[in-house]
Design goal:
The complex is a heterodimer of chains A (about 450) and B (about 80).
Chain A (H helix, E strand, L loop, with lengths): L11 E3 L19 E2 L2 E2 H8 L3 E5 H18 L3 E6 L6 H9 L3 E4 L2 H9 L7 E3 L6 H9 L3 E4 L2 H14 L4 E7 L13 E2 L4 H12 L3 E7 L8 H22 L5 E3 L17 H4 L3 H12 L11 E4 L3 H4 L3 E12 L5 E5 L15 E4 L8 E6 L8 E8 L7 E5 L5 H4 L10 E4 L5 E5 L4 H5 L12
Parallel strand pairs in A: 4-20, 5-6, 5-13, 6-7, 7-8, 8-9, 9-10, 9-11, 11-12, 12-13, 15-17
Antiparallel strand pairs in A: 2-3, 4-14, 14-15, 14-19, 16-19, 17-18, 20-21
Chain B lengths: L5 E2 L4 E3 L6 E4 L1 H11 L4 H11 L8 H14 L12
Helix pairs in contact in B: 1-2, 2-3
Classes of the chains: A alpha/beta (about 450), B alpha+beta (about 80).
Chain lengths: ~450, ~80
């Protein structure tokens, strides 16, 4: 007697004209049973589900690739790790071991960088609000402080005067560049002449020295011309500073914004096709800076604050299917144990989702929901996915950027994070949150206590 | 249950009223055939059990009822139609 085939839930798919194209109707769903050679099952058994898993090898590769690509094209290059992208100590320390400085945007981040052993002179301090104490600490510590607005300029002057210092500072510029939407809220506008006015005001004050200029075009910038144009404008501004005001800059900071291999919700092509390699970003920046008119001995340090493009691809979230259901519109729904509380980037990315084991059966339009009792808790809203059983582990990626610092403590406790070394060792880099972590912050006032 | 569909052994399904075509997986094809023969819920479940290796976690009754909902959404059966026990 022949063996009966394994049961798969009934599935009926309507044929739609236009659904097929030359690429085929379904890209094929690859299973991924391991991360850097460590079995998904082993990771879940040891650390539970959901769990963030970071690849040290991928992170180091990305850092070295960008650094080497930029150094090929510019003599003095320094990466400064953007703390807000992921400030887990272990992740920051991998960057610092690779020679990266720190780029911080708050007093809290500044303290984290100091905890990680970064000398204050190797901290770039950006952001639209630097409280007085943090600003003072950074100026005294000879950090690279990039001033964001006139009020901050005045605050820096007051601190310098009070302490009898004459600190070097940078100013932050914003500008239109390429097709990228203009981020105009940070720094002084270059195109309108405001930045030039700010420089004259800074120099006229006589309390600060201008040593650097900084710009940050935006986030997930796919347009290389934007970097070419922005770097060109920075170079032209630096030339004018030198020619008209005799200012020689110590640093030129082109910020961050390089895209990772993720795919935005509005993006047609997948990340591996749409995102330029790091070498092409480096090329665009170097192209733009070619107009800088500086003797080789006075070449300013080029600082890159790349965050997302370095760490995103190094991070994966393992989550587990907890339920299947059918929606009234006929779509299949899958509920998993990690939602937008854990994967904040679900709001703007179409994450790649791979099952840990091969799935069989007909792919159907499927919604993947998180565990929150909230309608907005959607991890993937339109995915062709085969039937999947409760208990199946799914790998969601890339998720290394922003999810850890932006994860919300909401309804569920936050999951642990694990690092896999290039030799295949693995260990916690953040333990799972426990209830005590939360309630230890709570206070009940006296009048609610007692009898 | 009245189900006027042409169903091929490979799971190609044609609705002559509308011209719509569908792909049915083996379980869906079996259910459509059973429904064409007028089978009720219990018989459809038994039909699946007879043809497939069913796991402990599988809930065939739920799957059949959900499948009926899919057919109703695709207007292959009237919305008010229910399976007989």
């Amino acid at each position: 007697m022949s063996e009966k085939p394994r049961y798969e839930r009934p599935s009926l798919q309507r044929h739609r004209s236009g659904a097929m194209n030359k690429m085929g109707s379904f890209p094929g769903l690859r299973s991924k049973g391991q991360i850097d050679g460590v079995a998904v099952g082993e990771l879940v058994e040891r650390y539970g589900s959901p769990v963030f898993v970071f690849s040290q090898r991928t992170l180091e590769d990305r850092i070295r690739t960008l650094r080497d690509a930029m150094r090929l094209r510019w003599p003095r290059v320094q990466l400064a790790w953007s703390y807000k992208t992921n400030y887990l100590d272990a992740i920051c320390q991998i960057h610092h071991r690779e020679g990266s400085w720190a780029e911080v945007v708050s007093g809290m981040e500044y303290e984290r960088a100091m905890r990680n052993g970064v000398p204050t002179s190797q901290i770039v301090f950006n952001g639209p609000y630097k409280d007085d104490a943090s600003l003072e600490r950074a100026l005294v510590g000879q950090s690279m402080v990039n001033l964001d607005h006139y009020d901050e300029l005045a605050a820096a002057e007051r601190i310098a005067e009070r302490l009898g210092l004459r600190p070097k500072v940078g100013i932050r510029l914003n500008m239109s560049a390429g097709s990228t939407p203009r981020w105009s809220r940070f720094g002084f506008n270059l195109d309108s002449g405001q930045a030039w006015d700010a420089v004259r005001r800074l120099l006229g004050g006589g309390k600060l020295d201008l040593a650097g200029i900084h710009c940050h075009l935006g986030t997930f910038v796919l347009d290389l011309d934007a970097y070419r144009e922005a770097a060109g404008k920075l170079a032209a501004f630096a030339n004018r500073l030198r020619d008209e005001l005799g200012v020689k800059l110590d640093w030129l900071d082109v910020g961050g914004g390089f895209a990772s291999q993720s795919r935005l919700k509005s993006q047609y092509l997948p990340g591996e096709q749409a995102t330029p390699p790091l070498s092409r970003y480096a090329e665009a920046v170097a192209d733009g800076l070619r107009g800088l008119n500086t003797p080789p001995s006075e070449m300013p340090l080029l600082i890159l604050e790349t965050g997302r493009a370095l760490v995103d691809d190094a991070g994966t979230l393992i989550t587990t299917v907890v339920a299947n259901k059918r929606l009234p519109d006929g779509r299949r729904a899958v509920v998993v144990d990690a939602g937008v509380n854990t994967l904040f980037t679900s709001f703007w990315y179409q994450h790649q989702i791979h099952p840990a084991v091969p799935l069989h059966g007909t792919p159907e339009p499927t919604v993947i929901y998180g565990p929150l009792c909230m309608n907005i808790d959607v991890v993937a809203d339109s995915l062709l996915f085969p039937p999947v059983e409760v208990g199946t582990h799914l790998l969601v990626g890339p998720v290394g950027a922003y999810n850890i610092p932006q994860s919300m403590q909401f309804i569920f406790l936050r999951p642990p994070a694990v690092l896999i070394s290039p030799r295949g060792e693995h260990g916690l880099i953040r333990r799972a949150e426990v209830l005590e972590d939360l309630v230890s912050l709570d206070r009940v006032p006296d009048w609610l206590r007692g009898e | 249950m009245e189900l006027d569909l042409a169903i091929s052994p490979s799971g190609f399904v044609f609705d002559p009223r509308t011209g719509a075509t569908f792909s049915a997986n083996p379980a869906a094809r079996l259910l459509l055939e059973g429904m064409q023969e007028g089978e009720g819920l219990a018989a459809l479940v038994a039909r699946l059990q007879a043809h497939f290796e069913v796991g402990e976690a599988d809930d065939l009754e739920r799957d059949v009822l959900e499948f009926l909902r899919v057919l109703q959404d695709e207007t292959l059966v009237p919305a008010e139609r229910e399976l007989e026990g």
